[in-house]
Amino acid sequence: MITKRIGIDLGTANVLVYERGRGIVLEEPAVVALTERDNAVVAVGSEAHAMLGRHPGSIQVVRPMRDGVIADYLITEALLRYLIARVMGRMRLVRPEVMVSVPVGVTSVEQRAVRDATEAAGARRPAQLIPEPLAAAIGAELPVGSPRGHMVVDIGGGRSEAAVISMFGIVAGDSVRIGGDRLNEAIAQYVKRRHSLVIGERTAEEVKVAIGAALPLARDEATGVRGRDQVSGLPRTIIVRSSEVVGVIQEQLAAVVQSVRRVLEQTPPELASDVMDRGIVLTGGGALLRQLDELLVQETGVPVHVADDAQRCVARGAGIALDHIDVIARSMPTEEEALVGQPLPR
Ligand code: ADP
Ligand code: MG
Fold first, then answer.
1. Among 53, 61, 128, 307, which lies 20 to 30 A Cα-Cα from 326?
2. How far is the CA of 9 from the centre of ligand 2 (A)?
3. What is the pLDDT of residue 19?
């Protein structure tokens, strides 16, 4: 029997599974629905996501990766178990080889938690881990094994990670807990303050995707937004423009720009010069925000490209990395490095 080899992107917004020889086989929101009483899992992925903001009090819908690595171990394990079971189908007896992406700066305790949860969920031991930006770069088909500097910036729901990579190693990296979620929150707060309208996070995200941009668009766009009037408590629809959204999310985007700058500053000159030549590659769903590449060009002076299929690069890279297990293992911080290294900002 052949062993399945899969890469898992355990994102804060979406979980994806890439299978060698097949490609992306599963793509679901990183959401789990549980009973309030005994934490039994009732739905996972898109089915659970559909319950967000609509579920009865007896069920809670949680995003196990929300702000950090593993917010809740058992829920994460349940999510992994579901993903692995779905991919394995009836081949349950043969444990798959699994590579899971983890954020830069993950502590050894957090690494162990992900590894244990993956193994408990049915992966062959030892489950492999790969730093997210390295997976993103491999998935974006950058030749990261070469002795040149390659820079990626991955913008997810809960985090943005920037790194310069050379010979499969992270030369300089930075991770900030600012991603698409913060942009959604900023939009929801603005709509409440400016229009006295309360909207949920899903609605705010729809606004961002529909008309959001990092810089003013050549032609302003607008969309109708439905929410609950703060005063009357009744449903009401307002119009929001791209130009408003651009202003509302500037502060969050500035923090991402700062993180990218920090990485460039820490990069040795030869590798920085490679990055100047080749440019920065953007991955993750947040990379799809219009004009974000342009904003980064303006703020860093470095050319920027959005990767093809940006939201799937990490999963694809994690799967492909199973061919390079030895070198990838070396790119993970060791127990000691993880202890002295910078922990994830809280
Ligand atoms: P994670 O790695 O945290 O799971 P993803 O890489 O899947 O996150 O990206 C999810 C984020 O990308 C969400 O915040 C989502 O709103 C955002 N996103 C997806 N598409 C777009 C778009 N077209 N414009 C702006 N943001 C987007
Ligand atoms: Mg991600």
1. 307
2. 7
3. 96
